[in-house]
Amino acid sequence: MMHNEGQRFRFSEAPVWEWQRAYYEERGLDAWTENQVPQYITSNPMIAAAYAEMIFGFLQDLAAKGKTSEPVTILELGAGVGRLAFQILTKLIELRDYAATELPAFRYVMTDLVMENVVGWRNHPSMEPYIQQGVLDFALFDAMKDTALDLVVAGETIQPGDLQQPLLIIANYFFDSIPQELLYVGEGQIYECDLILSSAEEHVNLAPSEKLKAMEISYAYRLAPQYSAESSPYRDVISLYEDELEDSHILFPEAGLSCLERLGTLSSAGYMLITADKGDHRLEYWKFAEPPEFVLHGSFSLTANYHAIRYTLEQQGGLACFTTHHYKDINVGCILMVAEPKSYVNTRLAYLREVERFGPDDFFSLKQWFDQQVTRMELKQILPFWRLGGYDAEFLILCAERISDLLPDATDEEMMDMRHGMHSMWSSYYVMDKQGELSFITGQLFHAMYMYEDAKYFLERSMLSDKDKFNTDVLYDLAVCCYELEMEEEALAYTRKVLALEPDHEEAGSLLESLEG
């Protein structure tokens, strides 16, 4: 047990949580777009497709029960940059339209505790079609205290008991980032581990992220009999820890469980939770566990105690789905807190297909390896993996140079598959800071495949998105596209722009002669 001099705080009440909150309030959506807070692992097309399949299965199960007259509310906690919500909606609407069967209507509600983020989503161009369709709304939500949802678009308030369908909750990288308790089990007793900050006063004027970097922490321990008391709502799981663990530190999600309880009151029919995080659902993981590590990325994250969440909710009648195999980077779970949870067969089958057999964590592990092998891959490996990942834009950016090298020897079928993939990618692309780079790369690849109409569209978009791409290479490629498409006036205009910037550009000079000849 560790202890040194400094300010002592109950773990869940330490200033680090205030600094965490202040960081997100200060940075807004830039926390994700500036590559500070990780977002790819929980926001890529593959995980979005898995979630959409589980949600679709849930809608099918409700329809099978005859519950189609009331809409289903899908609530995402801490929706981050908005990429996951957009991709889930894109995939879910695809499934709904493809199936063409009777299902309850649905509305996806993105939430955050920062108003700037809510406004950013509301005004984001990728969100507008879904807002117009009435399937997307937004709300401020403080996970530590709020009991209702004030919807921005609909102008409605969802109060406890208002929902007739089960609420569907999505919580990615959520439970590891809100206040938790830190407990210690030793000699069959439960202790609370207080956090001691030995440098809190010295860095009072620093930015939140700098305070986190500079903090020096240690722990002090005190008996916590209240957790074992008859009146404690967590008595059963704490008793299990007292019986089974020794010399173990446990992050206990009291605030997370309280949040779920409050959200559960919004519906008279219960809820389903889909969640992904760092954190294990097995008791063995917490045996002899050391004090937690603060993982810093502008803000910080810890580890989610999915065992406590699973055990507590199952004791309340829920049914939890977690993988039988061990996770590596991200643990995806689904918990049904509804009447007769086993009757939700389509939901459970979707989890079996999309997570248990091969899921987002498996894909991410493969992608980390694949990213290192790209220069040795052929199109016959690149194309299937790109399909497996849902035509991910970031993967195309990574592979673009290798694909360009391979195109001269590509078959017509491979090039047609490339074309289909790039259009699929673009149709479901959530506009972020890489839009200009992505449209430029896409246009170049189409140009290399002699698909000039497609190339012209994307190259022109790249210039609109990124003024830095307004250079002679892009202009010349556009001139060639227009020339091949017999758009002579546009070809002439682009060629003259090239020569105005670079008078000695030989290819442009030759093209100008052909156009004026």
TrEMBL record:
TPR repeat boundaries on the chain: 472-505
Xref: PROSITE patterns: TPR (PS50005)
Entry keywords, A to Z: TPR repeat
Cleavable signal peptide: none
Keyword hit for Magnesium: no
Entries under InterPro entries matching the protein: NDUFAF7_sf, SAM-dependent_MTases_sf, TPR-like_helical_dom_sf, TPR_rpt
TM stretches of this protein: none
Keyword tRNA processing carried by entry: no
Name this protein carries in UniProt: Tetratricopeptide (TPR) repeat protein
Annotated organism of origin: Paenibacillus amylolyticus
